[in-house]
Design brief:
about 210 residues; 4-stranded antiparallel beta sheet; 9 helices; elongated
């Protein structure tokens, strides 16, 4: 059994040129509504987006898009896919056979953030449970049971990879709920997954991702 940490990778926009194009599209779309395209120049999108955010005119921000690949556990993806204005493609336990060499002949899990690494009772119980699930899963596969049936005993903390596409308005909404906690305290493992992405984006483009 392998234990890995959650992580993210921004697939798109992948470079400065692509980011610039997305931000330009936001301004172009917004200025089309006001017929102020004549005010567009190389850097006008910065003040334009600042103003749009201050006015809470979220529809304009829907013209920018971002695609992110996450490594997390399946319990967290159950929450993530509730955001219906996103597109999702996720690693399939129906077709992935973790007894194969390309998976290391083992399952991969993510330790919950509220479990310590000091070998306490709770951590040991979690680890023992995961190892038991792995043993039974591999046994089922060896006995001819299909992965789509054997997966039923995999733990919720089984590692998964999921690609998420959404417009900037929806990403801001996700961060409000899952990081900032505007509707209540976020799940600690969701916060652990999304807060590094949020901080990365605020450094990259503070006038879009920071507070208005």
């Amino acid at each position: 059994m392998k234990v890995v940490k959650p992580s993210f990778e921004i697939l798109y926009p992948a470079n400065a040129v692509e980011w610039y194009r997305e931000l330009q599209l936001i301004e172009l779309a917004g200025r089309t509504a006001y017929k102020s395209e004549d005010k567009i120049d190389a850097n006008s999108h910065i003040d334009f987006i600042k103003k749009i955010k201050m006015q809470n005119h979220g529809a304009v921000l829907e013209f920018g898009n971002m695609v992110v690949k996450f490594i997390t556990d399946r319990g967290i993806t159950h929450e993530l896919v509730r955001h219906r204005l996103c597109s999702f493609l996720q690693e399939s336990t129906r077709y992935c056979n973790y007894s194969q060499d390309k998976f290391g002949n083992e399952i991969t899990v993510i330790q919950p953030s509220n479990l310590s690494n000091d070998g306490g009772d709770a951590t040991k119980f979690w680890q023992d449970s995961c190892e038991k699930a792995e043993k039974e899963y591999l046994s089922m596969i060896r006995n001819g049971i299909s992965p789509q049936t054997a997966r039923s005993i995999l733990p919720t903390c089984t590692k998964t990879e999921i690609v998420v596409k959404a417009n900037f308005r929806e990403w801001l909404h996700i961060f409000d709920l899952r990081v900032v906690g505007k509707t209540g305290k976020p799940h600690p493992d969701m916060f652990r997954l999304l807060s590094p992405l949020y901080e990365n984006l605020k450094k990259k483009c503070p006038y879009l991702w920071g507070e208005p």
